[in-house]
Amino acid sequence: MEKLFISESFRRKDWGGRKIGRVMKLTTCLILLCSCFAFANHANSQEAKVSLNMQNVQLGKVLDAIEAQTEYLFISNRHVDLNQRVSVSVENKSVRDVLGTVLKGTGLSFEVEGVNIVLTKAGKNSKTFPQQDKKKVTGTIVDQSGLPIAGANIVEKGTMNGVISDMDGNYSIEVGNNAELQVSYIGYIDHTISVAGKETVNVVLREDMQSLDEVVVVGYGTQKKANLTGAVSQVTSKVLENRPITNLGQGLQGVIPNLNVSFDGGNPNSEATMNIRGLASISGEGSSPLVLVDGVQMNLNMVNPEDVESVSVLKDASSAAIYGARGAFGVILITTKQGQTERKPVIEYSGSVQFNTHTYLPDMLSAPDYMDAMNESSFNSTGKPKYSDQQVQWVKDYYNDPVNNPVYHIMENGKISWNSNNDNYAQMLQKWAPTHKHTVNISGGGKSVRFYASAGYMNQEGMFKDATDIFKRYNFLSNISADLTPNFTVGFKASYTHTVYDAPHAYSTKGSSWWEQMTRGEPQILFPITTPADSPVGAGIPTEHFYNFLTSGSRNVQNAGVTLLMGNAEWDVFKGFKLKGDFSYKARSDKDKDVQKEFAYIRDSWTVQNSATFPSSIVSQNSHSNYFAANIYGEYQTSIGGKHNVHALVGF
Predict the structure, then answer these.
(1) Would you call 319 helix, strand, or coil by DSSP?
(2) Alpha-carbon distance 343 to 448, whole Å?
């Protein structure tokens, strides 16, 4: 992978699990204890003391010694001179005191941010970090009823210096004299308080009632978050808006707890593999959750992320009560955007251009190393090497001096021995693959009618320099709803999605994966792409190198189209009781066309052959499927005494 980083140089040190993560709601004592251990090193580093006796050594050596005795990690940029000579002799002194002595006269300043110490060059135009007097602050975090809150985050504002409260809600942290503490916990309103003139700071957190009043999509209806009894998580469109994604599966990675999203390959049309709370069988088969878009089962690749209003994940087995056995592994409910009441029509455009690079590329052996490895493997299995010593020497000669050594030799049996040393990554792959996507939508509504319509286009290229694969997606969506009477609402949705995946045809004699072929040893690493000018057949004749198969003009084109029509109605029969119904029709058409072109190439003799490309062929496959679904159900919801909620759902 091409590593992108800020132009800062980091002093490398394995600091393990000291990185402070966001503490989630603790449900067992075991989780709390694990969290406390995670912060143990951080708490200890705040009071770390060191002993040093180093004379006329480089500053970097002193910093290494401090790192070895503490949990601190030093960070500096390229302007910091770590080679200047310093001396220090201290016994059991705090790190702050030691640095104050060592850095005197070096033109450097420092700031402690949690377990990190940032070194910068002092100057008029550079940011300096004056030392601040520190003090220890202790206290207790409780809720409005006085009960302690275990696992609350207490962070010094503007820094990474933070701790969590223990089982009794107590905490202890070393901060600046005039610092402010930010206290937070899931389900409660964040609280900020100054510690100026205080050594004991107790905090009372108030419940976030607005968060509890949020409406979550669950099954065939909605509920307030405060009334949920099952395991449900929801994210809104705001989470997806600023992420550089091309499909919804990428947008859901890392945003919903317990939802595991992965991609088997890097192809532009690769589909997300998902499971909730891990695999449900030894083989992993059948563990994927049910995905519904506005109540209709659909592939995530067919959904434009810009059209998504919210995504709810039903995690526990209770979802099977509504969706049957197919929902036993969880359900993902995707709701698309709709218009708003009494809003003037608004036209919005969103577009992006992004460049993708490789996540990881394995190191490849050079041609001589490859031949040595193959000889060792062959000798272990058959007792004889695959390549002769003379062949290995030819390759080494060409590897060391390709100008004065030929790219091929003729062996005694008349066969060609190729000596090329190809860098397939450099020859085959582009460093950056462009992607661009565009969406235009219009939304609005009056007192009784609401509408939303959008059109989207996406184009994503693969990683090959030549004849690469390309994925295109076209999306059209229209959502309309109207209040025919104060207690009767109807809605209609129409959408169409068309995808095209145009990829190079994979010759069956060469394997099913282009990446497998590219990393294969012979012929890829030893064969030149075309014959040299001094060959008996002249220059430019294709060899069996896989590049010639990739760029032969053979293509596999997959077209998929999904049309969705949906109508729904809702009738408020009386207070608390609603009668709902919907009807959906989904049509899917798939057209696959695979073209294989025959071409001649050179292998181990000057006679051209076509055994791996014969015969030329065209295979076309068409399929069409229709899906109908109708639902009618009644929902009753009431509250007793403002404390007890009753919710019942019956339907077909």
Answers:
(1) helix
(2) 11
